[in-house]
């Protein structure tokens, strides 16, 4: 179906009209699916599905089918399935169409069905594990993201097939058809809820046209302020859904890159061959660092992409977009193959997407837990990076141990580095003093070592004068 679609000229799906199109954000949020209309509510299934109507900014309807015993049937939908009482509409619409759905599962309590995944808007989808609140999103595909002077293309899911799970099954499968001017695609998602909810994803992409940047397994998040860039005139010390990009390379190196809310569009590339994983992570889990009871930022999941099979040569690309509001998603990370995406080609990728809180399990060595930046006293041309590490062997080292650093940088003069122990935190801290070369961006990399043996992941950052 996707191959046939890609062979045809692209046709924009029609938008809905009427009162549903004119709904405000608050009105749309006030819409509720009636509890007695959930799909599979009367079965012994551990999954239920509720549906989002097309409306507000979700103006393009999607087709939704239910697959049972190998037979796909369109999902019947009626305005009577929704509660419009709090929307302010004088009367419910006579007809509604669907924009997406959410999946429910007894995630946190045995007798309560909680939301574990949702698919709504373009090719966006979200998932959470036990004890988590929605934050970072995933997408089916990203096209031409982060190209200055060229608009990004947003593929959208046109249709979904919800495969009815067997009674008592702990996973369920969703199929999806994606379309855009540049490509069409077929997707399979197998969702396994738990403390780490995992979505086994397979995507087959058919190129309708040449695509400059084909982003695979894209993740989208928000970073407004953090330890190195505290918010001004805000009681909250940090505001973000993710605080870093983490990579596990094909050669086994682990890399941490703290996120930034830059002054201008910033694109960073991390070249690799057959990556073991990458993700947008929320490492800071201390409520005291957020002070936000309503948003629950300390419970936002880290999303980790674990490639399956051979992905070949390419790069993980990080796009950081300046924003003046925490309501904007301004961080994107995805995989880009070294080889161009040409019209008529077929590309297939498989990966596991994990929503997790136990990010430390991915980092057996010392981890970066904080990055701070400031002036060097008495040296107006210099800047100081302070990087704090913890975990791994660092926790058992006495302060007297001769821990050293290996630091590299570009477009700057390295003035001084030194390491100090933080025994009350069972961690260590690295100071890097440097003098930038004019207005050129400074790339920095560092690890801690003991007698030539590396103790930590590789910390990397960019300082923009």
From TrEMBL:
| Compartments (UniProt record) | Periplasm
* Keywords associated with the record: Periplasm, Signal
Residue ranges occupied by any Glucan biosynthesis periplasmic MdoG C-terminal domain in the UniProt entry: 2-460
- Indicate yes or no for the key word Signal: yes
Keyword Transmembrane helix on entry: no
Which BP terms in the Gene Ontology apply to this protein? beta-glucan biosynthetic process
Q: Which PANTHER family match?
A: GLUCANS BIOSYNTHESIS PROTEIN (PTHR30504), GLUCANS BIOSYNTHESIS PROTEIN D (PTHR30504:SF3)
Name of the protein in its database record: Glucans biosynthesis protein G
- From the UniProt record, which GO molecular function terms apply? carbohydrate binding; catalytic activity
Taxonomically, which superkingdom?
Bacteria
User: Which biological pathway?
Assistant: Glycan metabolism; osmoregulated periplasmic glucan (OPG) biosynthesis
Q: Which positions are tagged coiled coil?
A: none
Looking at the UniProt record for this protein, which Gene Ontology cellular component terms does it annotate, in alphabetical order? outer membrane-bounded periplasmic space
Q: Which family does it belong to?
A: Belongs to the OpgD/OpgG family.
